[in-house]
Amino acid sequence: MYSLLKPILFKFDPEKVHHAVTDGLRLLNNIPGGAGISKAVWLIEDVRLEREVFGLKFKNPVGLAAGFDKNGLMVKEMANLGFGFVETGTVTPLPQGGNPTPRMFRLPKDEALINRMGFNNDGVDVVAERIKAYRASADHAKQRVIIGGNIGKNKVTPNEDAVSDYVKCFDKLFDVVDYFVVNVSSPNTPGLRALQEKEPLLNILNTLQQRNIKNGVSRPILLKIAPDLTDEQLDDIVEIVQESHIAGVIATNTTISRTGLQTLGDAKEEVGGLSGKPLTQRSTEVIAYLHQKSKGSFPIIGVGGIHSEQDALDKITAGASLVQLYTGFIYEGPGLIGRINKALLK
């Protein structure tokens, strides 16, 4: 079905299509019988798919990466498509509109996207209330989907004050998400990637860890890293995870590299983060390096260029405990979730 729709959808602006598709999914899931149709077509449920990672029980290891559901609007709908966990965000303390449009570009020859969204979101107060309402619903009780909160800083916040933005998001979301992701690796907020350096990053992570208990409960904190780091920088990441005692790493975010693209013309020259198939090999290499260097001492969520069952299996073989989809989900459709889960069952 999706193979018939995709050529039509790809004729229109990617961001407008995103909103049209998500609006359609919400409509489907809110009409009588709609949620049942979604689950019947796409959902794969089997106890053998369950995974316990950083103290949380995932009903399956295939998740939705941050960026697709920035504002926590689609958790129910994504769970009905078969995702075992949904990562909302990136969320910032204050609402922000993001970068000027157009800010998302398809590269069909490469099965890739370039985006420079710029952390457009409704702000942490609104998103926290939205997730709280979902968690109180009967849908959440039935779906048992794990919810992650991906947090960042506002564009106007200078790097020297960045820790305060991460703290504000952490405190607001603490009661409504199951785990946190510290995003310092997006290329679309000026200067953000400088926070991946050891000193500022340890400051952010240690500060969050000091606050990471409330009524006897703590939340797993993960770090999302860029694929463009050198081996020496990845060595630093291993040390940072071990020194700060955070729960693990998400590898990887989008890349600023344009090496090897088949796309010609203006699209490949657009500023922003590249995702999709060109990232498949590099993200798997980063996972393998971190897993080997750390001797498997912390979990890794693998993301980047998963367009097939084999891509997901390769990341798990390299050392990932869980995987996430975004661009592959757009190019391959929701059937990819079930195909990966079926492959894992085999």
UniProtKB/TrEMBL annotation:
Pathway: Pyrimidine metabolism; UMP biosynthesis via de novo pathway; orotate from (S)-dihydroorotate (quinone route): step 1/1. Pfam families: DHO_dh (PF01180). One of its GO terms (molecular function) is dihydroorotate dehydrogenase (quinone) activity. One of its GO terms (cellular component) is cytoplasm. Its cofactor is FMN. PROSITE patterns: DHODEHASE_1, DHODEHASE_2. It is a peripheral membrane protein. InterPro entries: Aldolase_TIM, DHO_dehydrogenase, Dihydroorotate_DH_1_2, Dihydroorotate_DH_2, Dihydroorotate_DH_cat, Dihydroorotate_DH_CS. FMN binds at residues 66-70, 90, 150, 183, 224, 252, 276, 305, 326-327. GO terms for biological process: 'de novo' pyrimidine nucleobase biosynthetic process; 'de novo' UMP biosynthetic process. The active site is at 186 (nucleophile). Residues 49-344 form the Dihydroorotate dehydrogenase catalytic domain. It is an enzyme of class 1 (oxidoreductase). Its EC number is 1.3.5.2. Binds 1 FMN per subunit. It is found in: Cell membrane; Membrane. The keyword Amino-acid biosynthesis does not apply. Keywords: Cell membrane, Flavoprotein, FMN, Membrane, Oxidoreductase, Pyrimidine biosynthesis. Substrate binds at residues 70, 115-119, 183, 188, 253-254. It catalyses: (S)-dihydroorotate + a quinone = orotate + a quinol. It comes from the Bacteria. Belongs to the dihydroorotate dehydrogenase family. Type 2 subfamily. Catalyzes the conversion of dihydroorotate to orotate with quinone as electron acceptor. Monomer. This is Dihydroorotate dehydrogenase (quinone). It comes from Mucilaginibacter myungsuensis.
